[in-house]
Design a protein that fits this description.
heteropentamer; A: about 375 residues; E: about 425 residues; two-stranded antiparallel ribbon; two-stranded antiparallel sheet; 16 helices; 4 strands; binds adenosine-5'-triphosphate; binds leucine; binds magnesium ion
C-alpha cells in the first residue's frame, strides 16, 4: 500500500551526547498483575542500564520508556500507537499477557517496532507470522502437552477435569492441555469456565465433586487458581491440581495456604536461584531495587539483552544515524545462540525461542517456589 | 347526533368499584359536565375513555368506532384530547414545544425525511411552529413561548394544557377540573373561554368541575357520579334541584347560589 | 440427567445460600439508599470492600498481638464485626455528606457520577494503603472457622449427595439472617423506619412532619453501610482472600439482586439476593448437563441475567415490588 | 398578643423576588386569610413561615421568638402545622401511616390513637380507607388526609394552603365548617384561598397579596364589600 | 477581566480575530514544539472557544471544519507525536459518536442504559468476523476474509445490525421503567459480552476469549488505511454525519416525541405518541451510531476481543453523557472529549512523565503510590469535583429559542383557516 505516515524522519530531541535511542517496556504496572509486570520492567531496566556504557561508546544514548498496559488490550494498543509514532523507540520488551500482546503486536508490526516478549505463551502470538514479534519463553502447545504428559504418565491421572478462566491465555493453555491429554488417552470429565475477578467457584467445584476425577487442571492465573484450590479442599476434594505458568507466583501460596499442597504447575520460567548466573542476577536485582526477584524478572532482563544485541548489530553500518526499525527487527530474528542468565535464546523463523524449556514444579508444603520435578526441552 | 356513547362502563381497583355500570351519551357540539363527590370516579371515567386504564366491562364508542382495547395514543388519533387533574406538562421543554408535541400526529416527517431535511419536512416544521404559536395566542400565552413549561404559574400551566390538547385537533375535548386553583375572576374568564372554544373550533366538550357556578353556567347536560354510579343526569336546573345530588354533592348552600 | 442434578442439589443449595446471603445484605444497602434518594449508590460495593479490608486488617493485627489465640474465635469475630460496621457506617455517612448532599437538588443522574467517582477513589485508596503496608494488595486473612462439616443428605435419600461446608458458612448464614430480621423490623415497625420511608417519598413534606431529613438520610446511609461493612468481614472470613476490586463485581450482582426483588423493597432485596446466589450456583453446576455440553458454567451469568430479564418482563416492578399504578 | 408576626419579609427563589417586604400579624385565636391571584406569593408566605424557604431579610416572630432562620423540622415541633398546596401526602404510605407521620414527635401510642379518632370524626372517609395507599386516593380524599395529618400534631397555629382546591362543594362546605370548628376550639389559623368569598366569610381578618406585596388589609367583611377586591378577586 | 468579556460580547469581529489569533498561536507552538501535549490540547481547546463565540452557526461549522480537517492534522504532522495525536483524536471521535448515541437514549428519551457498549461490540464483531478468516467456520459459501474494500459497506451493515439489536433489546425492555431499565440493559450488555467470549463452541463464531486478530484494514482503490492519521479522517467524516443527524433529529418531530416521553409518558401518549415505537426508535438510532463506530474500531485495532466491551466501558460512556450535560449535544461532545483525553493522554502523559522522573532518580515514590497506579484515584476525584461544581453538566442543555416575530406572521394564516371568530383578547388575566 501507500505509506503516508512515513516521510520526514525529522530531527529528534536528543542532541548533545549522541542520538537518543529509547526502548519501551509495556507491561501491567497497575491492576491485578502489577507485581509481575513491574518485575519485567525492572529486569529490563537493569539490562538496559548495564548496556548504557556500551552504546554511549557507539554514540547513542539509551533510554528506557516504560508503559503501563494495565493488562488491558485496548490500553496496550493505545500505548502501542504512542510507541509506534515515537521514532526514537526502537524496540519493546513486553507484554506480560498474551491477550494484550496479540493486538498490540499488530500495531508494532505496522510501525515495524520489534518486540521481545518475556512471558507470552499463547500460540497465536507468533503464529501470525509477524516479522517483529519474538518471545524467549515456551509456547502453550509445548507447555500444555508437557503438563499433560506429566499428569498422565507421572501422576497416573486417567480422568481429568479441566477448568479455565476464559481469557486468551487460560483458554489457549487449557485447550492445549486438553488436546494432549485426550491424545494420550485420558478421559476429560468436564471442561468448564470461570469468571475472572469472582471469588466463589463452588458451582464448578460441585461438578468436580460429583464427577470424581483424579486430577483437576486449571488454565488461568494465580488469583483465581488459589481461590479455586482452597475452595476445592474445603469441599473435601483432595485430588491433585495442576496449572500452568499463571500459577507460578508466591501469591498463590498466600491465597491457598495449606491447601496448596499437592498442587503441580508447569512453568516456562526457570528458577533463577538454580544457577550461578541466576544467583548473581538475583543479588544484583535485590541490591538495585531492594526487591526479591519474581519468576519473570530474569526474563525481562534477558529479553532486553536480546533486544539490545539485535540493536547493536543493526547499528553497525548505520553511520551514527538511528538504525531503521526493520533492520533492528531483522537482526533480532537472526540471533541464534545468545546466552542469557536464565535461558539460551535462538529464534526460529516465526520468532519462537528454540531453546525454551518447560519446568514442572510441585508444592508439597505452603512455600513458594515449589520443588522442581522436571525440566523438559524440545 | 351523539358523538360519545358510553355503556355499562365498569372499573374496579381491587375491591373498590371506581366506576360502576355507567351509561352516558354526549351530543355532538355540546358542553357536558361530569360532577360528583371526591372519589366518585370522575377522573377514572376519563381515564377509561382515553385508554389510560382499560375497563373491566362495558363499551366506549366515539361516533361509530369502539375505543375499548385501544391504546391512549390510538384514541388520541381518533380525536379525543384531554387535560389532567394533576397537571402533566412536559416540564423541561419550552411552552411552544409543548404545543408542538400536540401537533405530533398531524406531522408526516419520517426518519428519512428528517435526516435529509427535505423541503417538505422543513416547511412542515415551520408550519408546525406557526400553528403552535397560534394556539398559544389563542389561550393567551404567546409571550411565554420560549419559557420552560415548569416555570409558568399554575393558572398558565392549566391554559397550556388546554392549548396542547387543542393542537391535536380533537373532536372531543375532556377537561379535568380546569378551574381548580383559579380565583373567581379567572374562573369567569375560563367560562367564557370554554364557550368560545366550542364556537370557534367545533369541538364537543366534557368537563369535570367542582365549581358549581361554572358548571351551571356553561353546561347543557350534567351527569352526576357518586360511588362510581351515575345517580342523576339532566339540565343544570334539574340537577340543581335534585335531592339526591344536593345530599351527595352540592350541599345545602348550593341551593341558594351566591 | 435429572438424577445427576438432584444428586448435587444439596451442595448447590448450601453454596448458593451462602453466596446469596452475601448478595442479599449488600443488596439491602443498595435498596435502602435507593429507596430514600432514588440513587444507585455505586460506591456501596466499595464500602463492602472496605469493610472486608478493615475486618481482615483487624484480624491480622489481633493475630499479631496474640489476641486471636487468647479469646474464643467467635468473640473475636463479633468484636471485629461491630467495630467494622461502626467504621463503615460512619464512612457511609461521610460519603453522603461530601459527595451526595451537595447534589441533592441537582438532576438525579449527576449523583450517579459522583457515586462512581467515590467508588474509584475508594478502590484506589484501599489498594494504596494495603499495598503500602504489605507490598501486595491481595490480602489473605488468618484462617478461621475452617472446620468442615457435611450434612448427610444421603441418609435422607440416596438420590442426594452429602453437602459439604465450613463453620464459617454457618456463621455467615446466621449472621445474615439476624441482620435481615433486625433491619426489617426496624424499617417496618419503628418510627424511624417509617420516617425513612416518608423521607423517601417526599422530603419537603417530611420536614413539615418534624422529621429532620438530613438526620434520616444519614441514618439510612449509616445502617446500609454498616451492614455492607459487616458483610465484607463475613465475606473475608468465608472466602479468605480479598482485593480492592471485589466490590465492583459483587456490588453489581447485589444491585441486580435488589432489582430482581423490587428495588426499594427490603424483603425483596433479601429474596432477590438469595435467589440470585442459588441460581448462579445452580447454573454453574448444571448448565453443562442441562444443555448437553453446549453451554457450560461460563454462561452462568447469562443464565442469571436472562432470568432477571424474564422476571422483569412479567413483573416489571420486581418480585416483591408492588405495582404502583400511577394515579392519573 | 400576636402569635405570629412577619416583619418586612423578602423571599427569593434564585433571582425571582417572590415576597417584597411583607408584614403580617396573626393574633391568637384568629382566622386570618391571604387572598390574591395566581403567583401572588401566598404559598411562598406560608413556606417562609414553616421554614421551607428562608427569607433573605426580615423576621418571622412566633410566640415571641424569631424563627425565620429555623429549619422546617424544628418549626414543625413548636406547634405550627402546614398543610401544603397540592396536599403532598406520602403516596406509598397507607392512610394510617400518613396520619401517624403527622404525630411524629408524639411518643405516646395512646395519644396518637386518640387523635386519630378525632380526625376520623372530622373525616369519616379516612376511617374507611385506613390501609389504602395514599397515592391512590382521589383528589378530595387526599385533601382530607392532608388536613387530618396536620391535625395529628395538635398544632396551635395551622397554615392551610388552598384547602378547598378540587373539592366537591359539599366537602368545601365541610372543610370550612371544620376550619371554623377548629378555630372555635382555640386553634389559630392562617388560611390561603382562591375561594376568596368563602374564606373572607369565616375569617376575622384578611390580607390581599399582589405580586409579592400586600396591597390591602382589613376585617373579613370589610374586604368582601370592598369594591376593588370584588372587582379583582370575587367577580 | 470582566470588562474584557463584556466588551467582547456582541463584538463578532473581535471574537473572530481573537479566535484566529488563538488558533495561530497554538498551532505555531505545536508546529514548533513538536511533542508538546499542552500545545496540542490548547489547539483543541480552540474548538470550545469557537463554540462560545457568537458567530453565525454556518461560520462556526466552517471554522471548525478548517481547524479539524486542515489545521490540526497539518501542524501536528511534522513531529514524532503526529500519529499519537491522531490516534487520540481518532479515539475521541469514536467516543464522541457513541456518547451522542447514548445521549439520544438517556438524554433525550430518558431511558437509562447501562449496557450501551454492547452495540459497539456488535458493530466491531460484525466487521471482525467477516474481515478475518473467522466467517469461514460457519459460512459455507464465500471466501473469507473479505477484502478491506468491504469496510465501507460494513459501516452501513454495522449500523443496521446494531440498530436491529437495539430494537431487539428494546422490545422486552420497554415494559420496565427507570432504574429497572438500567439493570435490564446492564444485563443485556453483560450477556452480549459473555456470549461473544464463549461463542467459540459449539461453532467457532467469535473465536472466544482469543479474539479476532489481523482484521483487514479498510481499503479503497488499493489505498490502505492503516495509520491513525488515516483513520482520523474516516472518523471525522462519520462523526460529521452523526452530529448532523443528531441535530436534525433533536429538533424534529421525532426528537420532540423523545423529549415528551422523557418528561411524561402518560401525557405523551395522550398526544398521540406511540410509546413503544418512539422508545424503540431511540434505542435503534442510538445503537446505530455505536455500531458504525464499532466497525471503525475493529478496523483500526485490527483486533477484536470481548475485553474491550466491559461494563466499565458502558459506564464510562454514560459518564461522558451525564458529565457533559444530558441532552446537550455540545455538552456531550465536550464530555466525551474531556474524558477520553483525560484517560488516554493526560493521565498517561502525566504518569509517564512522573515515571521518567523517578527512573532518573529525580523523585521517588513509595511503590504503592506509583503514579501509574493512581489513575483511578485521580479519575475518581475528578468525577466528584466535576459533579459537584457542574451539576448540570459541562454545557447544560438548552431549549431552542424561537423567534416570536416570525411566528406571529405565520400564525395569522392559521387563524383564517380554522377560526371564524376573532379570538384575540379572551382568556387572558
Ligand atoms: N390507580 C388506582 N388504584 C386504586 N384505586 C384508585 C386508583 N385510581 C382511583 N382509585 C380510586 O377510585 C376512586 C375514584 O377515583 P377518581 O380519581 O376517579 O375520583 P374523582 O371522582 O376524580 O375524585 P376527585 O374529584 O376528588 O378528583 C377513588 O376512591 C380512588 O381512591
Ligand atoms: N420553586 C420555585 N422556584 C422558582 N420560582 C418559584 C417557585 N415557587 C414559586 N415561584 C414563583 O414565586 C412566585 C410566587 O409563587 P407562589 O407559589 O407563592 O404563588 P401563589 O400565590 O401561591 O400562587 P397560586 O395561587 O398559583 O398557588 C411566582 O411568581 C412563582 O412563579
Ligand atoms: C504471566 C503469565 C500467566 C502470562 C501468560 N503466559 C500469557 O501469555 O498471558
Ligand atoms: Mg378527579
Ligand atoms: Mg399557591
Amino acid at each position: 500500500g501507500c505509506n503516508s505516515s512515513g516521510g520526514s524522519e525529522g530531527s529528534n530531541g536528543g542532541g548533545g551526547s549522541g542520538k537518543v535511542i529509547k526502548i519501551a517496556t509495556q507491561t501491567p504496572l497497575s491492576g491485578g498483575s502489577a507485581t509481575l509486570g513491574e518485575s519485567i520492567k525492572l529486569g529490563a531496566q537493569l539490562a538496559l542500564e548495564e548496556n548504557k556504557k556500551k552504546f554511549e561508546d557507539l554514540g547513542y544514548k539509551l533510554q528506557l520508556q516504560p508503559y503501563d498496559d494495565q493488562a488491558d488490550p485496548k490500553k496496550g494498543v493505545a500505548n502501542a500507537q504512542l510507541i509506534g509514532s515515537d521514532k526514537s523507540i526502537l524496540g519493546v520488551v513486553g507484554h506480560l499477557n498474551s491477550g494484550v500482546s496479540i493486538p498490540s503486536s499488530e500495531v508494532y508490526e505496522k510501525y515495524k517496532v520489534p518486540m521481545v516478549s518475556p512471558a507470552n505463551t499463547a500460540t497465536e502470538v507468533t503464529d501470525r507470522g509477524l516479522k517483529t514479534v519474538n518471545r524467549i519463553v515456551a509456547r502453550d502447545d509445548f507447555q500444555g502437552p508437557a503438563g499433560a504428559d506429566f499428569a498422565i504418565n507421572k501422576l497416573g491421572a486417567k480422568k481429568i477435569f479441566v477448568i479455565q478462566d476464559k481469557t486468551a491465555y487460560g483458554t489457549g493453555l487449557a485447550d492445549a492441555f486438553k488436546k494432549a491429554a485426550e491424545d494420550a488417552g485420558a478421559e476429560i470429565l468436564g471442561y468448564e469456565g470461570i469468571t475472572v475477578g469472582e471469588k466463589d467457584f463452588n458451582g464448578v467445584l460441585t461438578q468436580v465433586l460429583s464427577k470424581k476425577p483424579d486430577l483437576v487442571f486449571f488454565g488461568g492465573l494465580y488469583t483465581e487458581g488459589g481461590q479455586l484450590i482452597r475452595q476445592a479442599r474445603d469441599k473435601g476434594i483432595k485430588i491433585p491440581f495442576m496449572g500452568g505458568d499463571g500459577m507460578d507466583s508466591s501469591t498463590l501460596v498466600e491465597i491457598a495456604g495449606d491447601a496448596v499442597t499437592d498442587v503441580y504447575y508447569t512453568s516456562v520460567a526457570a528458577d533463577a536461584s538454580k544457577t550461578t548466573e541466576g544467583k548473581d542476577f538475583s543479588s544484583k536485582y535485590k541490591e538495585k531495587f531492594n526487591k526479591n526477584v519474581e519468576s519473570y524478572s530474569a526474563y525481562g532482563y534477558d529479553s532486553m539483552s536480546v533486544l539490545l544485541k539485535g540493536l547493536e548489530a543493526a547499528i553497525e553500518g548505520s553511520d551514527g544515524d538511528l538504525p531503521a526499525r526493520e533492520k533492528v527487527a531483522e537482526e533480532i530474528r537472526k540471533i541464534q545462540d545468545f546466552q542469557g542468565v536464565v535461558t539460551k535464546v535462538g529464534f526460529d523463523d516465526i520468532g519462537d525461542n528454540k531453546f525454551a524449556k518447560v519446568y514442572i514444579y510441585k508444592f508439597s508444603e505452603a512455600k513458594y517456589p515449589g520443588v522442581q520435578e522436571g525440566e523438559i526441552s524440545k | 347526533m351523539s358523538i360519545l356513547t358510553v355503556s355499562n362502563l365498569t372499573k374496579q381497583f381491587g375491591g373498590l368499584v371506581a366506576v360502576n355500570s355507567v351509561d352516558m351519551t354526549v351530543e355532538k357540539g355540546s358542553i357536558t359536565a361530569v360532577i360528583g363527590p371526591n372519589g366518585a370516579g370522575k377522573t377514572t371515567f376519563f381515564n377509561l375513555i382515553t385508554g389510560v386504564y382499560q375497563p373491566d366491562n362495558g363499551n366506549v364508542q366515539l361516533g361509530s368506532t369502539s375505543l375499548v382495547g385501544l391504546k391512549p395514543h390510538e384514541i388520541s388519533r381518533h380525536g379525543i384530547a384531554r387535560t389532567f387533574q394533576n397537571i402533566r406538562l412536559f416540564s423541561n421543554i419550552t411552552v411552544l414545544e409543548n404545543v408542538m408535541v400536540g401537533l405530533h400526529k398531524q406531522l408526516k416527517a419520517g426518519i428519512v425525511g428528517t435526516l435529509f431535511q427535505t423541503k417538505k419536512v422543513r416547511e412542515e416544521e415551520q408550519r408546525a411552529k406557526e400553528e403552535a404559536y397560534h394556539w398559544l395566542e389563542y389561550v393567551g400565552l404567546a409571550k411565554h413561548l420560549n419559557e420552560d413549561a415548569q416555570n409558568l404559574s399554575y393558572g398558565a400551566q392549566r391554559r397550556l394544557e388546554i392549548a396542547r390538547a387543542l393542537a391535536t385537533k380533537p373532536k372531543l375535548l375532556l377537561l379535568d377540573e380546569p378551574a381548580a386553583g383559579m380565583n373567581p375572576r379567572e374562573t369567569r374568564e375560563l367560562t367564557e373561554f370554554i364557550h368560545r372554544m366550542r364556537e370557534d373550533l367545533d369541538v364537543t366538550i366534557v368537563l369535570i368541575e367542582h365549581d358549581m357556578k361554572l358548571v351551571m353556567q356553561i353546561s347543557e347536560q350534567i351527569f352526576v357520579l357518586d360511588h362510581g354510579e351515575k345517580i342523576a343526569e339532566g339540565k343544570p336546573a334539574e340537577i340543581r334541584n335534585n335531592v339526591k345530588v344536593i345530599e351527595a354533592y352540592l350541599g345545602k348552600s348550593a341551593v341558594t347560589p351566591a | 440427567m435429572l438424577a445427576d442434578i438432584l444428586q448435587s442439589l444439596p451442595q448447590v443449595l448450601v453454596d448458593g445460600i451462602a453466596l446469596g446471603a452475601i448478595y442479599a445484605v449488600i443488596a439491602l444497602g443498595y435498596t435502602m439508599v435507593y429507596g430514600i434518594l432514588e440513587l444507585i449508590n455505586f460506591a456501596h460495593g466499595e464500602i463492602f470492600m472496605t469493610g472486608a479490608f478493615i475486618g481482615v486488617a483487624m484480624l491480622i493485627l489481633m493475630t499479631g498481638m496474640g489476641w486471636l489465640a487468647a479469646m474464643p474465635a467467635i468473640l473475636a469475630l463479633i468484636l471485629v464485626l461491630v467495630v467494622t460496621s461502626i467504621l463503615t457506617g460512619f464512612m457511609g455517612v461521610g460519603i453522603e455528606r461530601m459527595a451526595y448532599r451537595p447534589l441533592r437538588n441537582s438532576p438525579k443522574l449527576i449523583t450517579l457520577i459522583s457515586a462512581i467517582g467515590v467508588s474509584f477513589l475508594l478502590q484506589d485508596l484501599v489498594r494504596f494503603i494495603t499495598e503500602y503496608k504489605r507490598g501486595n494488595y491481595i490480602l489473605t486473612g488468618p484462617s478461621m472457622f475452617n472446620e468442615q462439616f457435611s450434612i448427610k443428605f444421603s441418609s435422607i435419600s440416596s438420590s442426594f449427595s452429602d453437602a459439604f461446608f465450613k463453620t464459617s458458612t454457618l456463621i455467615l448464614i446466621i449472621a445474615v439472617v439476624i441482620m435481615m430480621i433486625g433491619l426489617d423490623f426496624f424499617v417496618n415497625k419503628t418510627k424511624w423506619g417509617m420516617a425513612m420511608r416518608a423521607v423517601a417519598q417526599d422530603r419537603e413534606t417530611a420536614s413539615l412532619m418534624s422529621i429532620n431529613v438530613n438526620k434520616v438520610i444519614s441514618l439510612t446511609f449509616f445502617i446500609g453501610s454498616a451492614l455492607g461493612g459487616a458483610t465484607g468481614v463475613l465475606f473475608a472470613v468465608q472466602y479468605g482472600t480479598i482485593d480492592p476490586y471485589i466490590g465492583f463485581i459483587l456490588g453489581l450482582k447485589a444491585f441486580t439482586a435488589a432489582v430482581l426483588g423490587g428495588i426499594g423493597n427490603i424483603r425483596g432485596a433479601m429474596a432477590g439476593g438469595l435467589m440470585l446466589g442459588i441460581l448462579e450456583m445452580f447454573a454453574a453446576a448444571n448448565l453443562q448437563l442441562l444443555t448437553g455440553g453446549i453451554f457450560g458454567a461460563e454462561y452462568k451469568d447469562v443464565f442469571a441475567f436472562a432470568i432477571l430479564i424474564v422476571v422483569l418482563i412479567f413483573k416489571p416492578e420486581g418480585l416483591f415490588g408492588k405495582a404502583v399504578t400511577e394515579k392519573v | 398578643m400576636s402569635i405570629l408576626q412577619l416583619k418586612d419579609i423578602n423571599t427569593y427563589y434564585g433571582g425571582i423576588h417572590a415576597l417584597k417586604g411583607i408584614s403580617i400579624s396573626v393574633e391568637k385565636g384568629e382566622i386570618v386569610t391571604l387572598i390574591g391571584s395566581n403567583g401572588a406569593g401566598k404559598s411562598t408566605t406560608l413556606k417562609t413561615i414553616s421554614g421551607q424557604v428562608l427569607p433573605k431579610t426580615g423576621s418571622v416572630i412566633y410566640e415571641g421568638k424569631d424563627i425565620s432562620k429555623q429549619p422546617a423540622h424544628i418549626t414543625a415541633q413548636t406547634g405550627i402545622a402546614h398543610v401544603p398546596e397540592g396536599r403532598r401526602i406520602f403516596p406509598r404510605l397507607t392512610v394510617k401511616e400518613n396520619l401517624e407521620m403527622g404525630a411524629f414527635i408524639v411518643k405516646d401510642k395512646k395519644v396518637i390513637k386518640e387523635r386519630m379518632e378525632q380526625v376520623f370524626d372530622y373525616f369519616p372517609r379516612l376511617r374507611e380507607r385506613l390501609t389504602q395507599k395514599g397515592g391512590t386516593m382521589s383528589g378530595g380524599e387526599q385533601q382530607m388526609l392532608a388536613m387530618g395529618r396536620a391535625l395529628m400534631s395538635k398544632p396551635s397555629l395551622l397554615l392551610l394552603d388552598e384547602p378547598s382546591m378540587g373539592l366537591a362543594p359539599v366537602i368545601v362546605e365541610q372543610i370550612f365548617d371544620i376550619i371554623s370548628d377548629l378555630n372555635k376550639e382555640g386553634m389559630t389559623i392562617l388560611l390561603v384561598e382562591q375561594n376568596a368569598f368563602q374564606a373572607l366569610q369565616i375569617a376575622n381578618r384578611g390580607y390581599v397579596l399582589q405580586t409579592g406585596e400586600i396591597v390591602m388589609a382589613g376585617q373579613g367583611n370589610e374586604l368582601i364589600t370592598n369594591e376593588s377586591v370584588r372587582e379583582a378577586y370575587l367577580a | 477581566m470582566n470588562k474584557l468579556t463584556s466588551k467582547l460580547k456582541g463584538n463578532k469581529l473581535a471574537q473572530i480575530i481573537l479566535l484566529v489569533l488563538y488558533v495561530l498561536v497554538t498551532s505555531l507552538s505545536l508546529y514548533l514544539a513538536q511533542a508538546s501535549v499542552t500545545a496540542f490540547l490548547l489547539l483543541l481547546f480552540s474548538l470550545l472557544l469557537l463554540y462560545y463565540t457568537e458567530l453565525p452557526d454556518r461560520l462556526k461549522w466552517l471554522i471548525a471544519g478548517v481547524v479539524l480537517i486542515g489545521v490540526i492534522p497539518f501542524v501536528s504532522s511534522t513531529g514524532p507525536g503526529y500519529q499519537s495525536y491522531m490516534e487520540v483524536a481518532t479515539v475521541v471521535g469514536i467516543y464522541v459518536a457513541m456518547a451522542l448515541g447514548l445521549n439520544i437514549v438517556v438524554g433525550l428519551a430518558g431511558l437509562l442504559d447501562l449496557g450501551f457498549v454492547a452495540f459497539f461490540a456488535i458493530g466491531a464483531y460484525t466487521y471482525g468476523i467477516f474481515a478475518t478468516g473467522q466467517a469461514a467456520n460457519f459460512m459455507p459459501f464465500g471466501t473469507f476474509p473479505l477484502s478491506g474494500e468491504s469496510f465501507w459497506i460494513f459501516i452501513l451493515i454495522g449500523c443496521f445490525v446494531a440498530a436491529l439489536f437495539g430494537v431487539l433489546l428494546g422490545i422486552p425492555v420497554l415494559r420496565v421503567k427507570g432504574d429497572y431499565l438500567a439493570i435490564v440493559t446492564l444485563g443485556f450488555g453483560e450477556i452480549i459480552r459473555i456470549v461473544f467470549n464463549n461463542l467459540d463452541k459449539p461453532v467457532n463464531i467469535t473465536n472466544g476469549a482469543m479474539g479476532l486478530a489481523s482484521v483487514k484494514p479498510p481499503e479503497i482503490f488499493g489505498y490502505q488505511f492503516v495509520y491513525p492519521n488515516q483513520f482520523y479522517f474516516i472518523v471525522l467524516a462519520i462523526l460529521f454525519l452523526v452530529i448532523l443527524a443528531v441535530r436534525r433529529f433533536e429538533f424534529s418531530k421525532i426528537g420532540r416525541s423523545w423529549k415528551a416521553v422523557r418528561e411524561n409518558e402518560i401525557a405523551a401518549q395522550s398526544m398521540g405518541i406511540h410509546l413503544v415505537r418512539t422508545k424503540l426508535l431511540a434505542f435503534a438510532i442510538g445503537a446505530s451510531f455505536s455500531g458504525m463506530m464499532g466497525v471503525v474500531f475493529a478496523a483500526k485495532q485490527t483486533f477484536v476481543d470481548p475485553t474491550s466491551f466491559t461494563l466499565l466501558e458502558s459506564i464510562t460512556i454514560l459518564v461522558m453523557v451525564i458529565l457533559g450535560g444530558m441532552g446537550s449535544v455540545p455538552g456531550v461532545i465536550l464530555g466525551a472529549a474531556v474524558i477520553t483525553i483525560l484517560n488516554l493522554q493526560v493521565l498517561t502523559e502525566v504518569t509517564n512523565y512522573l515515571n521518567q522522573l523517578s527512573l532518573d532518580g529525580v523523585i521517588s515514590f513509595p511503590e504503592a503510590l506509583a503514579p501509574a497506579k493512581m489513575q483511578r484515584f485521580i479519575f475518581g476525584a475528578i468525577l466528584i469535583i466535576f459533579a459537584i461544581y457542574r451539576p448540570q453538566g459541562l454545557i447544560p442543555s438548552k431549549n431552542p429559542v424561537f423567534d416570536e416575530e416570525s411566528l406571529k406572521e405565520g400564525s395569522k394564516k392559521h387563524r383564517k383557516e380554522q377560526i371564524t371568530v376573532e379570538p384575540d383578547k379572551g382568556f387572558q388575566a
